[in-house]
Amino acid sequence: MEFEQALEVVSLALNREIARPLTEVEVALVFGAWNKLTYNDLAARSGYSTNYLQRDIGPKFWKLLSDRLGRQVNKTNLRSILSQIPPPIADLPIPKPSATDWGEAIDVSSFQGRVAEIEKLTHWIIEDRCRLIALVGMGGMGKSALATKVAQLLQGQFQFVLWRSLRHRPSLETLLFDLVFFLSNQQDVDAKPERLLYWLQTHRCLVILDNQDTLLQSGDCAGYYQSDFAHYSDLFRLLGESLHQSCILLTSREKSAEVGRLEDFNGWVRSLSVKGSLEASWALMDSWQLTGTHTEKHQLCEFYRYNPLVLKMVAASIQNLFDGQISSFLKAETLVFNGIRRLLDQQFERLSPVEQTIMYWLAIHQEWTTITELQMDIVPAVSRACLLESLESLTWRSLIEQRSGEYTQQPFVMEYVTDCLVQQLVTELLTVQLSGLNRYALFKTMILDNIPESQIRLIVQPLIKQLKHSLPTSQMLEQHFQLIFSALRCTPVATGGYGIYNFINLCQYLQLDLTQFDFSAFNISCR
Fold first, then answer.
1. pTM over 0.90
2. DSSP class of 492
3. pLDDT at 209
4. Which residues, 6+ apart, have CB-to-CB distance to 88 below 8 Å?
């Protein structure tokens, strides 16, 4: 007999004609007895005092249940008593869904792959009885599709299945009214977190809340709510910490703070990082009739890290612009454009200044980078605590990859960030506003021959090309660089950063005469 069957047996025992919903404290008492918890343990889990459970409500509940079952029942023997009850009560099946509402759930009739993720989520939901699960990943990875597919596969294990999108940012009261009204079979209109918890305790429910990230604020660290939605944090903390027999499944581009605090590998609250899908990516290429060698297809998918939505955008462009030829698209070397750029714009604009700085430095390095290297690079300096918090926040936002204390970006994210850095620097150089020139090292060495080829090709050459387009003659370049040099001379020493070193290397790369500049005011031997 499963726990939800035990609850149903107790409900029917209290009223033989129709199973009456158990109160919150009655559910807690049955749960404690079923799992052989002490009253102290049960009090800690449920929020009720030990005295109230053991000396007040407990004895009354056990006496009422004893009267209904015709035998002496207490916390110690409840499980064995229920197992001895003859049919039909003892053989009640796990209820099939009595109500489903799929809301704005997407169509997954052509769902591909994700076998490992489905198996893991099924185990977490059915076997481990997780109360709160967050599916977290970059936009387009297929979190909503995965949540829908799992819910469809498991709906027979729940009495109520409800899907709701948070994309339109409903107030907490609006959402609570919707959930409580549905899960109570239209009997309850009390839009309070405690009433939602009551119905989650009374029934076995699966509730999917899509696009949680639309409620989260931009800037600062990831995972914190906008002021108008701050009470959502209290709700999800309540649903993660409190005793109930249901499962709340969240999807989000970034992990929320309460999930981060409550999650445990073996606990009631967990998160799953949703990565790209090999099967979905190859199916997309087939459906768009893209042609290419196995190596070319692998290269295309790997660049976009098997992101289904991004690959769908790319596949459409390859078919429309390159007659479906993957090789022609790869040769064009313009792999971040239109919809992909807008998708990344949405996520990049949410970052705090320190997070954006880290993203730029990872793009400059173009390879795995350690925490120590980042701390040495960043100007003005940030504390190690701030750096670690920002790296964790970027991880929660699914924008960086990590391994053993090293960090990097997905290839298409790195190309996007590199382009953003170049555009920012070009604008600043042309307007003689030199914040970025001072904060970021375009050249990691003063010796041109030692500059990494990737840094030259991806950062320096595009920057030089755009400068020459706006300043097409040598005279215009020299005059403009005189203005830049004058601005650098006015930069306080404490905040000078990389500006003068970038300036010298740019002049060398542009073959400008350095003898026309007086560097005596700069201490350039220290770096």
1. no
2. -
3. 98
4. none
